[in-house]
Specification:
The complex is a heterodimer. Chain A is an alpha+beta fold. Chain A has helices at 25-33, 88-95, 105-118, 124-130, 142-158, and strands at residues 3-10, 13-20, 51-54, 57-60, 73-75. In chain B, helix 2 crosses helix 3 and helix 4 packs across helix 5 (298-310). The chains are: A alpha+beta, B alpha+beta.
Chain lengths: 159, 340
Protein backbone atom coordinates (compact mmCIF):
# COMPACT_ATOMS: atom_id res chain seq x y z
CA UNK A 1 0.00 0.00 0.00
CA UNK A 2 1.24 3.50 -0.74
CA UNK A 3 2.53 5.34 2.25
CA UNK A 4 1.82 9.01 2.75
CA UNK A 5 4.34 11.43 4.26
CA UNK A 6 3.00 13.13 7.35
CA UNK A 7 4.49 16.04 9.24
CA UNK A 8 3.16 17.69 12.35
CA UNK A 9 4.27 19.26 15.60
CA UNK A 10 4.29 16.73 18.42
CA UNK A 11 4.50 18.43 21.82
CA UNK A 12 6.42 21.34 20.34
CA UNK A 13 8.79 19.23 18.24
CA UNK A 14 8.51 18.63 14.49
CA UNK A 15 8.03 15.00 13.51
CA UNK A 16 7.82 13.36 10.11
CA UNK A 17 6.65 9.82 9.46
CA UNK A 18 5.24 7.74 6.61
CA UNK A 19 1.76 6.38 7.30
CA UNK A 20 -0.43 3.84 5.54
CA UNK A 21 -3.73 5.14 4.26
CA UNK A 22 -6.46 4.88 6.88
CA UNK A 23 -4.12 4.75 9.86
CA UNK A 24 -5.48 6.66 12.81
CA UNK A 25 -3.57 9.23 14.82
CA UNK A 26 -3.46 7.00 17.91
CA UNK A 27 -1.57 4.30 16.02
CA UNK A 28 0.73 6.88 14.45
CA UNK A 29 1.55 8.37 17.86
CA UNK A 30 2.08 5.06 19.64
CA UNK A 31 3.65 2.87 16.97
CA UNK A 32 5.48 5.31 14.70
CA UNK A 33 6.48 8.07 17.12
CA UNK A 34 6.68 5.98 20.28
CA UNK A 35 4.51 8.25 22.43
CA UNK A 36 2.66 5.71 24.58
CA UNK A 37 0.74 8.24 26.69
CA UNK A 38 -2.46 8.19 24.63
CA UNK A 39 -4.15 4.87 25.43
CA UNK A 40 -6.21 2.52 23.32
CA UNK A 41 -9.45 1.81 25.14
CA UNK A 42 -12.28 1.01 22.74
CA UNK A 43 -11.27 2.25 19.30
CA UNK A 44 -14.70 3.75 18.68
CA UNK A 45 -14.87 6.97 20.68
CA UNK A 46 -16.63 5.51 23.69
CA UNK A 47 -14.04 5.88 26.44
CA UNK A 48 -11.80 8.92 25.91
CA UNK A 49 -8.56 7.15 26.86
CA UNK A 50 -6.94 8.23 23.57
CA UNK A 51 -7.76 11.95 23.93
CA UNK A 52 -5.20 14.43 22.55
CA UNK A 53 -5.24 18.12 21.69
CA UNK A 54 -4.98 19.16 18.03
CA UNK A 55 -4.33 22.88 17.68
CA UNK A 56 -5.58 23.16 21.25
CA UNK A 57 -8.85 21.34 20.63
CA UNK A 58 -9.77 18.05 22.27
CA UNK A 59 -9.89 15.11 19.84
CA UNK A 60 -10.25 11.35 20.09
CA UNK A 61 -7.08 10.17 18.36
CA UNK A 62 -8.55 6.71 17.68
CA UNK A 63 -11.20 8.33 15.46
CA UNK A 64 -8.86 10.82 13.82
CA UNK A 65 -7.19 9.90 10.54
CA UNK A 66 -3.47 10.47 11.02
CA UNK A 67 -3.26 12.38 7.75
CA UNK A 68 -5.65 15.05 9.03
CA UNK A 69 -3.01 16.07 11.60
CA UNK A 70 -0.67 17.14 8.80
CA UNK A 71 0.80 20.58 9.48
CA UNK A 72 -1.02 20.89 12.79
CA UNK A 73 0.11 20.87 16.44
CA UNK A 74 -0.65 17.71 18.42
CA UNK A 75 -0.34 17.75 22.21
CA UNK A 76 -0.34 14.60 24.32
CA UNK A 77 0.18 13.92 28.01
CA UNK A 78 3.85 13.29 27.21
CA UNK A 79 4.30 17.03 26.62
CA UNK A 80 2.33 18.22 29.64
CA UNK A 81 5.03 18.48 32.26
CA UNK A 82 7.66 21.20 32.04
CA UNK A 83 10.98 19.37 32.39
CA UNK A 84 10.97 17.83 35.86
CA UNK A 85 8.05 20.02 36.95
CA UNK A 86 4.59 18.52 36.87
CA UNK A 87 1.77 20.52 35.30
CA UNK A 88 -0.62 21.91 37.96
CA UNK A 89 -3.23 19.44 36.73
CA UNK A 90 -0.84 16.52 37.17
CA UNK A 91 0.08 17.70 40.66
CA UNK A 92 -3.59 18.10 41.56
CA UNK A 93 -4.38 14.60 40.27
CA UNK A 94 -1.60 13.25 42.46
CA UNK A 95 -2.63 15.20 45.56
CA UNK A 96 -6.33 14.39 45.18
CA UNK A 97 -5.73 10.66 44.54
CA UNK A 98 -7.43 11.03 41.17
CA UNK A 99 -5.86 7.88 39.70
CA UNK A 100 -6.05 4.26 40.73
CA UNK A 101 -5.17 1.94 37.87
CA UNK A 102 -4.23 5.00 35.81
CA UNK A 103 -5.43 3.85 32.41
CA UNK A 104 -7.95 6.68 31.97
CA UNK A 105 -5.60 9.29 33.45
CA UNK A 106 -3.89 10.51 30.24
CA UNK A 107 -7.26 11.09 28.57
CA UNK A 108 -8.71 12.71 31.68
CA UNK A 109 -5.75 15.07 31.92
CA UNK A 110 -6.05 16.09 28.26
CA UNK A 111 -9.80 16.68 28.61
CA UNK A 112 -9.16 18.71 31.77
CA UNK A 113 -6.40 20.71 30.08
CA UNK A 114 -8.66 21.50 27.13
CA UNK A 115 -11.22 22.80 29.63
CA UNK A 116 -8.86 24.92 31.72
CA UNK A 117 -7.14 26.36 28.63
CA UNK A 118 -10.41 27.90 27.50
CA UNK A 119 -12.08 28.33 30.90
CA UNK A 120 -9.68 28.83 33.82
CA UNK A 121 -12.50 29.09 36.38
CA UNK A 122 -14.94 26.28 35.61
CA UNK A 123 -17.89 25.38 37.79
CA UNK A 124 -18.31 21.82 39.05
CA UNK A 125 -20.99 21.28 36.38
CA UNK A 126 -18.59 22.47 33.69
CA UNK A 127 -15.90 20.07 34.90
CA UNK A 128 -18.40 17.19 34.83
CA UNK A 129 -19.42 18.16 31.30
CA UNK A 130 -15.78 18.37 30.20
CA UNK A 131 -14.86 14.86 31.39
CA UNK A 132 -18.18 13.22 30.54
CA UNK A 133 -16.66 11.61 27.42
CA UNK A 134 -14.02 9.85 29.51
CA UNK A 135 -14.72 6.60 31.31
CA UNK A 136 -13.05 5.83 34.64
CA UNK A 137 -13.54 2.41 36.21
CA UNK A 138 -11.81 2.95 39.55
CA UNK A 139 -12.10 6.36 41.15
CA UNK A 140 -15.83 7.04 41.05
CA UNK A 141 -15.02 10.38 39.33
CA UNK A 142 -15.29 12.43 42.52
CA UNK A 143 -11.50 12.73 43.07
CA UNK A 144 -11.00 13.61 39.39
CA UNK A 145 -13.61 16.39 39.55
CA UNK A 146 -12.00 17.65 42.76
CA UNK A 147 -8.53 17.57 41.18
CA UNK A 148 -9.60 19.63 38.17
CA UNK A 149 -11.29 22.18 40.44
CA UNK A 150 -8.18 22.30 42.68
CA UNK A 151 -5.89 22.80 39.67
CA UNK A 152 -8.12 25.64 38.46
CA UNK A 153 -7.91 27.28 41.89
CA UNK A 154 -4.12 26.93 42.06
CA UNK A 155 -3.82 28.29 38.52
CA UNK A 156 -5.81 31.38 39.53
CA UNK A 157 -3.68 31.76 42.67
CA UNK A 158 -0.51 31.87 40.57
CA UNK A 159 -1.89 34.24 37.95
CA UNK B 1 -46.51 11.86 37.95
CA UNK B 2 -43.90 12.84 40.43
CA UNK B 3 -40.44 12.30 41.80
CA UNK B 4 -40.26 10.50 45.12
CA UNK B 5 -37.41 10.46 47.58
CA UNK B 6 -36.57 7.47 49.71
CA UNK B 7 -33.89 6.28 52.08
CA UNK B 8 -32.53 2.75 52.48
CA UNK B 9 -29.98 1.08 54.70
CA UNK B 10 -27.76 -1.99 54.42
CA UNK B 11 -25.22 -3.56 56.77
CA UNK B 12 -22.66 -6.23 55.91
CA UNK B 13 -20.07 -8.49 57.46
CA UNK B 14 -17.38 -9.21 54.94
CA UNK B 15 -14.85 -12.05 55.10
CA UNK B 16 -11.21 -11.19 54.39
CA UNK B 17 -9.92 -13.79 51.94
CA UNK B 18 -11.44 -17.14 51.12
CA UNK B 19 -10.68 -20.74 51.84
CA UNK B 20 -10.97 -23.16 48.96
CA UNK B 21 -8.09 -25.55 49.59
CA UNK B 22 -6.17 -23.19 51.87
CA UNK B 23 -5.32 -19.60 51.10
CA UNK B 24 -1.55 -18.92 50.92
CA UNK B 25 0.59 -16.08 49.61
CA UNK B 26 4.36 -15.81 49.48
CA UNK B 27 6.78 -12.91 49.48
CA UNK B 28 10.53 -12.57 49.08
CA UNK B 29 12.55 -9.58 50.27
CA UNK B 30 16.19 -8.93 49.47
CA UNK B 31 18.57 -6.02 49.65
CA UNK B 32 20.68 -4.75 46.81
CA UNK B 33 24.27 -3.64 47.52
CA UNK B 34 22.92 -0.08 47.40
CA UNK B 35 21.05 -0.71 50.64
CA UNK B 36 17.69 -0.55 48.86
CA UNK B 37 15.25 -3.42 49.24
CA UNK B 38 13.16 -5.25 46.67
CA UNK B 39 9.95 -7.07 47.54
CA UNK B 40 9.13 -9.79 45.01
CA UNK B 41 5.45 -10.68 44.74
CA UNK B 42 3.09 -12.25 42.27
CA UNK B 43 0.22 -10.28 43.78
CA UNK B 44 -0.99 -7.90 41.13
CA UNK B 45 -1.76 -4.24 41.78
CA UNK B 46 -4.75 -3.47 39.60
CA UNK B 47 -5.17 0.00 41.02
CA UNK B 48 -6.21 -0.90 44.54
CA UNK B 49 -2.84 0.01 46.04
CA UNK B 50 -1.17 -3.37 46.60
CA UNK B 51 2.26 -1.94 45.77
CA UNK B 52 1.88 1.03 48.09
CA UNK B 53 0.62 -0.91 51.06
CA UNK B 54 3.14 -3.78 50.81
CA UNK B 55 5.90 -1.19 50.40
CA UNK B 56 4.80 0.49 53.62
CA UNK B 57 4.56 -2.84 55.46
CA UNK B 58 8.04 -3.89 54.30
CA UNK B 59 9.65 -0.54 55.18
CA UNK B 60 8.01 -0.45 58.61
CA UNK B 61 9.08 -4.01 59.42
CA UNK B 62 12.66 -3.55 58.18
CA UNK B 63 12.92 -0.16 59.88
CA UNK B 64 14.04 1.63 56.73
CA UNK B 65 12.56 4.64 54.85
CA UNK B 66 9.68 3.78 52.52
CA UNK B 67 11.69 5.33 49.67
CA UNK B 68 14.26 2.54 50.07
CA UNK B 69 11.77 -0.21 49.21
CA UNK B 70 10.76 -1.22 45.72
CA UNK B 71 7.90 -3.66 45.10
CA UNK B 72 8.14 -5.87 42.04
CA UNK B 73 4.97 -7.65 40.97
CA UNK B 74 6.15 -8.10 37.43
CA UNK B 75 5.76 -11.75 36.63
CA UNK B 76 3.86 -14.62 38.25
CA UNK B 77 6.07 -17.10 36.31
CA UNK B 78 9.18 -16.01 38.18
CA UNK B 79 7.82 -14.46 41.38
CA UNK B 80 6.87 -16.34 44.55
CA UNK B 81 3.44 -17.93 44.50
CA UNK B 82 0.29 -16.00 45.34
CA UNK B 83 -3.36 -17.05 45.16
CA UNK B 84 -4.17 -13.67 43.64
CA UNK B 85 -5.64 -10.22 44.11
CA UNK B 86 -9.25 -11.04 44.97
CA UNK B 87 -11.60 -11.70 47.89
CA UNK B 88 -10.32 -8.58 49.69
CA UNK B 89 -7.28 -10.65 50.69
CA UNK B 90 -4.37 -8.54 49.43
CA UNK B 91 -3.50 -6.38 52.42
CA UNK B 92 -4.16 -9.17 54.91
CA UNK B 93 -2.63 -12.26 53.26
CA UNK B 94 0.11 -10.66 51.17
CA UNK B 95 0.82 -8.07 53.84
CA UNK B 96 1.41 -10.84 56.39
CA UNK B 97 3.72 -12.67 53.96
CA UNK B 98 5.70 -9.47 53.32
CA UNK B 99 5.93 -8.87 57.04
CA UNK B 100 7.35 -12.36 57.63
CA UNK B 101 9.87 -11.96 54.80
CA UNK B 102 10.91 -8.50 55.98
CA UNK B 103 11.35 -9.79 59.57
CA UNK B 104 13.74 -12.48 58.36
CA UNK B 105 15.64 -9.98 56.20
CA UNK B 106 15.82 -7.56 59.13
CA UNK B 107 17.37 -10.31 61.25
CA UNK B 108 20.17 -10.82 58.72
CA UNK B 109 20.62 -7.07 58.31
CA UNK B 110 21.01 -6.60 62.07
CA UNK B 111 23.50 -9.50 62.27
CA UNK B 112 25.55 -7.94 59.47
CA UNK B 113 25.42 -4.54 61.17
CA UNK B 114 26.43 -6.14 64.48
CA UNK B 115 29.50 -7.62 62.84
CA UNK B 116 30.51 -4.22 61.47
CA UNK B 117 29.89 -2.37 64.75
CA UNK B 118 31.35 -5.23 66.82
CA UNK B 119 28.37 -5.44 69.14
CA UNK B 120 25.56 -7.89 69.82
CA UNK B 121 22.72 -7.71 67.28
CA UNK B 122 20.20 -7.60 70.14
CA UNK B 123 21.66 -4.24 71.19
CA UNK B 124 20.93 -2.62 67.82
CA UNK B 125 17.96 -0.69 66.55
CA UNK B 126 16.94 1.05 63.32
CA UNK B 127 16.02 4.74 63.20
CA UNK B 128 13.67 4.44 60.22
CA UNK B 129 15.80 6.91 58.30
CA UNK B 130 18.34 4.46 56.89
CA UNK B 131 20.64 3.99 59.91
CA UNK B 132 21.27 1.26 62.45
CA UNK B 133 22.60 2.33 65.83
CA UNK B 134 23.48 0.90 69.23
CA UNK B 135 20.50 1.34 71.56
CA UNK B 136 21.12 4.33 73.81
CA UNK B 137 24.18 5.35 71.80
CA UNK B 138 22.94 6.89 68.55
CA UNK B 139 26.45 8.05 67.57
CA UNK B 140 27.57 4.41 67.22
CA UNK B 141 25.75 3.80 63.99
CA UNK B 142 26.10 2.51 60.45
CA UNK B 143 23.93 3.22 57.42
CA UNK B 144 21.88 0.38 55.90
CA UNK B 145 23.75 1.08 52.68
CA UNK B 146 27.12 0.41 54.34
CA UNK B 147 25.68 -2.71 55.96
CA UNK B 148 24.46 -3.92 52.55
CA UNK B 149 27.88 -3.28 51.00
CA UNK B 150 29.66 -5.08 53.86
CA UNK B 151 27.27 -8.04 53.65
CA UNK B 152 27.70 -8.33 49.92
CA UNK B 153 31.43 -7.75 49.49
CA UNK B 154 33.00 -8.53 52.86
CA UNK B 155 30.85 -10.90 54.90
CA UNK B 156 29.38 -12.90 52.00
CA UNK B 157 25.82 -12.71 53.39
CA UNK B 158 22.56 -12.20 51.55
CA UNK B 159 20.32 -9.77 53.38
CA UNK B 160 17.11 -11.46 52.41
CA UNK B 161 13.99 -13.05 53.81
CA UNK B 162 11.24 -15.46 52.89
CA UNK B 163 7.65 -15.10 53.94
CA UNK B 164 4.48 -17.07 53.56
CA UNK B 165 1.09 -16.59 55.13
CA UNK B 166 -1.27 -19.52 54.98
CA UNK B 167 -4.79 -19.78 56.26
CA UNK B 168 -5.04 -23.58 56.34
CA UNK B 169 -7.85 -25.40 54.62
CA UNK B 170 -10.99 -25.35 56.68
CA UNK B 171 -12.81 -28.68 56.51
CA UNK B 172 -16.57 -28.60 56.12
CA UNK B 173 -18.50 -30.35 58.87
CA UNK B 174 -20.56 -32.92 56.93
CA UNK B 175 -23.36 -32.81 59.53
CA UNK B 176 -23.87 -29.09 59.78
CA UNK B 177 -22.11 -27.69 56.71
CA UNK B 178 -20.21 -25.47 59.10
CA UNK B 179 -16.75 -24.22 58.21
CA UNK B 180 -14.49 -21.30 58.97
CA UNK B 181 -13.57 -19.70 55.68
CA UNK B 182 -11.98 -16.54 57.01
CA UNK B 183 -9.97 -15.52 60.06
CA UNK B 184 -11.34 -12.01 60.30
CA UNK B 185 -14.26 -9.98 59.04
CA UNK B 186 -14.69 -6.36 58.04
CA UNK B 187 -17.99 -4.55 58.55
CA UNK B 188 -19.92 -1.78 56.91
CA UNK B 189 -23.17 0.11 57.04
CA UNK B 190 -24.43 2.37 54.30
CA UNK B 191 -27.46 4.64 53.95
CA UNK B 192 -28.50 5.60 50.43
CA UNK B 193 -30.95 8.30 49.48
CA UNK B 194 -32.49 8.15 46.01
CA UNK B 195 -35.06 9.97 43.92
CA UNK B 196 -37.38 7.80 41.82
CA UNK B 197 -39.24 9.29 38.86
CA UNK B 198 -42.53 7.37 38.62
CA UNK B 199 -43.06 8.57 35.04
CA UNK B 200 -39.74 7.42 33.57
CA UNK B 201 -38.70 4.80 36.15
CA UNK B 202 -35.33 6.47 36.51
CA UNK B 203 -33.53 6.29 39.84
CA UNK B 204 -31.14 9.13 40.69
CA UNK B 205 -28.67 8.94 43.56
CA UNK B 206 -29.13 11.83 46.01
CA UNK B 207 -26.52 11.03 48.66
CA UNK B 208 -24.81 8.25 50.56
CA UNK B 209 -23.54 8.06 54.13
CA UNK B 210 -21.43 5.12 55.17
CA UNK B 211 -19.30 3.71 57.95
CA UNK B 212 -16.65 1.07 57.34
CA UNK B 213 -14.77 -0.96 59.95
CA UNK B 214 -11.78 -2.53 58.22
CA UNK B 215 -9.10 -3.07 60.81
CA UNK B 216 -6.17 -0.68 60.89
CA UNK B 217 -6.18 1.62 57.84
CA UNK B 218 -2.52 1.32 56.82
CA UNK B 219 -2.86 4.08 54.23
CA UNK B 220 -5.92 6.17 55.12
CA UNK B 221 -6.00 8.07 51.81
CA UNK B 222 -5.84 4.84 49.80
CA UNK B 223 -8.62 3.39 51.96
CA UNK B 224 -10.79 6.45 51.51
CA UNK B 225 -10.25 6.50 47.76
CA UNK B 226 -11.02 2.79 47.46
CA UNK B 227 -14.26 3.34 49.37
CA UNK B 228 -15.23 6.30 47.15
CA UNK B 229 -14.47 4.43 43.93
CA UNK B 230 -15.97 1.17 45.17
CA UNK B 231 -19.23 2.88 46.08
CA UNK B 232 -19.40 4.16 42.52
CA UNK B 233 -19.09 0.54 41.35
CA UNK B 234 -21.91 -0.30 43.76
CA UNK B 235 -24.12 2.35 42.15
CA UNK B 236 -23.12 0.92 38.79
CA UNK B 237 -24.12 -2.63 39.80
CA UNK B 238 -27.32 -1.41 41.44
CA UNK B 239 -28.62 0.73 38.59
CA UNK B 240 -26.60 0.27 35.39
CA UNK B 241 -24.30 -2.65 34.69
CA UNK B 242 -25.15 -6.02 33.29
CA UNK B 243 -23.83 -8.14 30.42
CA UNK B 244 -27.41 -8.78 29.31
CA UNK B 245 -29.26 -5.67 30.24
CA UNK B 246 -32.84 -5.63 29.16
CA UNK B 247 -33.74 -8.59 27.00
CA UNK B 248 -33.24 -12.33 27.29
CA UNK B 249 -31.42 -12.83 24.00
CA UNK B 250 -27.63 -12.54 24.51
CA UNK B 251 -27.37 -11.20 20.94
CA UNK B 252 -28.89 -8.00 22.29
CA UNK B 253 -26.26 -7.78 25.00
CA UNK B 254 -23.76 -4.94 25.12
CA UNK B 255 -20.52 -5.36 23.19
CA UNK B 256 -18.55 -2.28 24.17
CA UNK B 257 -18.34 0.84 26.31
CA UNK B 258 -20.95 2.59 24.18
CA UNK B 259 -23.57 -0.05 24.97
CA UNK B 260 -22.43 -1.25 28.38
CA UNK B 261 -23.89 1.39 30.66
CA UNK B 262 -22.02 2.72 33.66
CA UNK B 263 -22.70 5.88 35.66
CA UNK B 264 -20.81 8.90 34.39
CA UNK B 265 -19.41 11.79 36.41
CA UNK B 266 -22.86 13.42 36.32
CA UNK B 267 -24.57 10.42 37.95
CA UNK B 268 -22.61 10.37 41.20
CA UNK B 269 -23.72 11.88 44.51
CA UNK B 270 -22.14 13.25 47.68
CA UNK B 271 -20.84 10.41 49.85
CA UNK B 272 -19.80 10.91 53.45
CA UNK B 273 -17.56 8.13 54.77
CA UNK B 274 -16.53 7.29 58.31
CA UNK B 275 -13.68 4.81 58.74
CA UNK B 276 -13.59 2.92 62.03
CA UNK B 277 -10.48 0.98 62.98
CA UNK B 278 -10.65 -2.17 65.08
CA UNK B 279 -7.30 -3.86 64.45
CA UNK B 280 -7.45 -7.54 63.50
CA UNK B 281 -5.40 -9.80 65.77
CA UNK B 282 -3.87 -11.65 62.82
CA UNK B 283 -3.64 -8.71 60.38
CA UNK B 284 -0.37 -7.02 59.38
CA UNK B 285 -0.26 -4.09 61.84
CA UNK B 286 -3.92 -4.93 62.48
CA UNK B 287 -5.14 -4.43 58.90
CA UNK B 288 -8.06 -6.27 57.32
CA UNK B 289 -8.76 -4.35 54.10
CA UNK B 290 -11.57 -2.56 52.26
CA UNK B 291 -11.52 -4.64 49.07
CA UNK B 292 -14.73 -5.83 47.51
CA UNK B 293 -17.02 -4.78 50.31
CA UNK B 294 -16.74 -1.13 49.30
CA UNK B 295 -19.24 -1.88 46.51
CA UNK B 296 -21.49 -4.41 48.22
CA UNK B 297 -23.69 -2.49 50.67
CA UNK B 298 -24.67 0.03 48.01
CA UNK B 299 -26.88 -2.43 46.12
CA UNK B 300 -29.24 -3.51 48.93
CA UNK B 301 -29.28 0.05 50.33
CA UNK B 302 -30.40 1.41 46.95
CA UNK B 303 -33.05 -1.32 46.58
CA UNK B 304 -34.33 -0.50 50.07
CA UNK B 305 -34.34 3.22 49.25
CA UNK B 306 -36.44 2.56 46.14
CA UNK B 307 -38.92 0.63 48.27
CA UNK B 308 -39.02 3.50 50.72
CA UNK B 309 -39.61 5.96 47.87
CA UNK B 310 -42.27 4.22 45.79
CA UNK B 311 -43.17 0.99 47.60
CA UNK B 312 -41.89 -1.54 45.07
CA UNK B 313 -39.52 -4.35 46.05
CA UNK B 314 -36.82 -4.70 43.40
CA UNK B 315 -35.07 -8.07 43.68
CA UNK B 316 -33.11 -8.21 40.45
CA UNK B 317 -30.07 -6.19 39.47
CA UNK B 318 -29.53 -3.83 37.83
CA UNK B 319 -32.62 -1.87 38.75
CA UNK B 320 -33.28 -0.34 35.33
CA UNK B 321 -35.99 2.23 34.57
CA UNK B 322 -37.92 -0.47 32.71
CA UNK B 323 -37.99 -2.80 35.73
CA UNK B 324 -39.09 0.06 38.00
CA UNK B 325 -41.88 1.05 35.60
CA UNK B 326 -43.12 -2.54 35.27
CA UNK B 327 -43.13 -2.94 39.05
CA UNK B 328 -44.98 0.36 39.50
CA UNK B 329 -47.52 -0.68 36.89
CA UNK B 330 -48.10 -4.03 38.60
CA UNK B 331 -48.57 -2.25 41.91
CA UNK B 332 -50.92 0.33 40.41
CA UNK B 333 -48.67 3.33 40.97
CA UNK B 334 -46.23 4.69 43.51
CA UNK B 335 -46.89 4.05 47.18
CA UNK B 336 -44.39 6.13 49.11
CA UNK B 337 -43.51 4.53 52.46
CA UNK B 338 -43.02 6.29 55.74
CA UNK B 339 -40.00 8.59 55.52
CA UNK B 340 -37.11 7.18 57.54
Amino acid sequence: MTKTPLQFRHNGRDVAVFVDGGVNLLVALRELIGDMTPKFGCGQGGCGACSVLIDGELHLSCLTLAETANGRAVETLDGMKDGPNLHPLQRAFMEQFAAQCGYCTPGMLMAAKALLDRNPSPTRAEVIEAISGNICRCTGYEPIINAVLAAATSGRARA
Amino acid sequence: MAKHRGRGIASINYPIGMNLGGDPSQALVHSNPSGKFTVSLSSIDLGQGMKSVTRQICAETLGVPVEDVYVDTADSDTGPHCMGSFASRGTHRVGNAVMAAAKEARGVMMEAAAEELEVNAADLDTDGRGNIHVKGAPHRSISTKDVAIAAQFKQGKTISGRGIFLVPLSEVNPETGEMSPATCYAHACLVAEVEVDDETGEVAMVRMDSAYELGRALNPRLVEQQLVGGAWMGISHALFETPEPYYPDPAHGPRDFVEYLMPGPGDICPHDIAVLERPAADGPFGAKGPGEMCANPVMPAVANAIFNAVGVRMDELPITPEKVLRALKAQGGARPQARR
